UniProtKB/TrEMBL annotation:
Source lineage: Bacteria, Bacillati, Cyanobacteriota, Cyanophyceae, Pseudanabaenales
Keyword Calcium in record: no
Pfam families on file: Pterin_4a (PF01329)
Catalyzed reactions per annotation: (4aS,6R)-4a-hydroxy-L-erythro-5,6,7,8-tetrahydrobiopterin = (6R)-L-erythro-6,7-dihydrobiopterin + H2O
EC number: 4.2.1.96
Family: Belongs to the pterin-4-alpha-carbinolamine dehydratase family.
Organism: Pseudanabaena frigida
Gene Ontology terms: biological process: tetrahydrobiopterin biosynthetic process
Protein name, as recorded: Putative pterin-4-alpha-carbinolamine dehydratase
Source domain of life: Bacteria
InterPro entries to which the protein is assigned, alphabetical: PCD_sf, Pterin_deHydtase
Keywords: Lyase
A single MF term (Gene Ontology): 4-alpha-hydroxytetrahydrobiopterin dehydratase activity
Length: 93
């Protein structure tokens, strides 16, 4: 899939379709809370497999039962269509 940097208007339109995602410091961002560390780590593993299939890797942060994900495309210096697609896949997990 071709990486295309999105405009602010495109990002606003797409993020409205992604519950709980927001833009923080120029990246798509969402926080998740789980019942345990094992549940959080299992979720991160699923995210890792989904992102690796796309060859588009998120920034994952984990402390105990919390996971924070940031999505940005370094090649285009911003948010791209790949970030939106990965966010959709993550929501489906």
């Amino acid at each position: 899939m071709l990486k295309e940097k999105m405009t602010d208007k495109e990002i606003t339109t797409e993020i409205a379709k992604l519950p709980e995602w927001k833009v923080v410091d120029g990246k798509l961002n969402r926080a998740f809370k789980f019942d345990s560390f094992v549940d959080a780590f299992g979720f991160m593993t699923k995210v890792a497999f989904a992102s690796d299939k796309m060859d588009h890797h998120p920034e994952l942060f984990n402390v105990y039962n919390r996971v924070v994900i940031d999505l940005a495309t370094h090649d285009v210096d911003g948010i791209s269509n790949l970030d939106i697609e990965l966010a959709k896949k993550i929501n489906a997990l």
